[in-house]
Amino acid sequence: MNWIGVMLKEPPLRRLVKQIVRVLPVHIATKALWDAVERPQYLCGVLHAAEQAQREGYPAVSVVEFGVAEGYGLITLQAHAEAVERATGIEVSVYGFDSGAGLPAFIGDYRDHPDHWRPGDYPMNETALRKRLQPRTRLILGDVATTVRAQMLPSRMDVRPPIGFVAMDLDLYSSTVGALRILTTVPLLRRVAMYFDDLNEAYNHRFAGELLAIDEFNASSKEVKIDRWRGLESWRPFPEAPWLRSMYLAHNLAAISGVTLDRPTAKMR
């Protein structure tokens, strides 16, 4: 890294550069580096998915949001998918899972944080949302514990591209447990980027919510393990950004076994 690049990432200059990058037609990877988009965590995940697909020789990849609610995240996800597809040549299919009716009528014990969530929170206007979805995006409504298995089976032709990014915003431990089944149901890339939305609030702890769901998944799964995305903050202009602490990788151990090379192709360098 040259000295000019280092200077641009120093405060207070870095904030000015971020605003410039946001409006200029620069490469999408540059916008991702500078957090110069809405929901930079989503762009980071989609870009990682496309780059990983290139490394593994896949022409297409799937990205998923659990917990669509009003749809702002899903709309942003499909916009990032379109930009990454143009930049990389990797086709990106988008899936959104939600009940369609907000948080369920029954919220469980302390693991679901009933002190923080209420039934019916985050309802969806399905008709309005569907009007804003592109052909690349599929909205799947129902209980995620059943829709993941029913709609995303590996035998279904429309979900052949392996999963490369999952955004988890279901709020409840019980719902997150059901959603994590996707990692043992459908084809995955070797490393699947994941974003967990509810990890940095004061009410969170290891014995409830998403953190407990992650721990239980790792204890029960032999072939896929979820861990923090280590080193993601390195060399970034804003390494203190809170969303970086919510980024994880699902390591597909079964796919990694026997692989001797997992480096960017010449195109990606």
CATH architecture: 3-Layer(aba) Sandwich
Point out poorly predicted stretches.
Answer: 265-269
The order of strands across the largest sheet is 3-2-1-4-5-7-6
What overall form do the CA principal axes indicate? globular
Order of helices and strands: HHHHEHEHEHEHEHEEH
Residues in helix, % = 25-40%
Q: What is the count of structural domains?
A: 1
Radius of gyration: 18 Å
Count all strands and give the number: 7
- Report the biggest beta sheet as strand number plus sense, adding barrel if it closes: 7 strands, mixed
Mean pLDDT: 89
Terminal residue distance:
14 Å
Strand percentage: 15-25%
CATH hierarchy class name: Alpha Beta
CATH topology name, in short, is Rossmann fold
Helix/strand/pairing category:
alpha/beta
State the helix count. Answer: 10
How would you describe what is shown here?
The protein is of the alpha/beta class and 269 residues long. It has helices at residues 3-8, 13-23, 28-33, 40-56, 72-88, 126-130, 144-151, 173-179, 209-220, 253-256, and strands spanning 60-66, 91-98, 137-141, 163-168, 188-196, 224-228, 247-252. Helix 7 (144-151) packs parallel to helix 8 (173-179). Helix 5 links the parallel strand 1 and strand 2 (91-98). It has one domain: Rossmann fold (3-Layer(aba) Sandwich). Residues 265-269 have low confidence and may be disordered.
Features:
alpha/beta; 17% strand; disordered C terminus; globular; 269 residues; Rossmann fold; seven-stranded mixed sheet
Quick synopsis:
The chain is α/β, with parallel strands linked by helices and about 270 residues long. About 35% of the residues lie in helices and about 15% in strands.
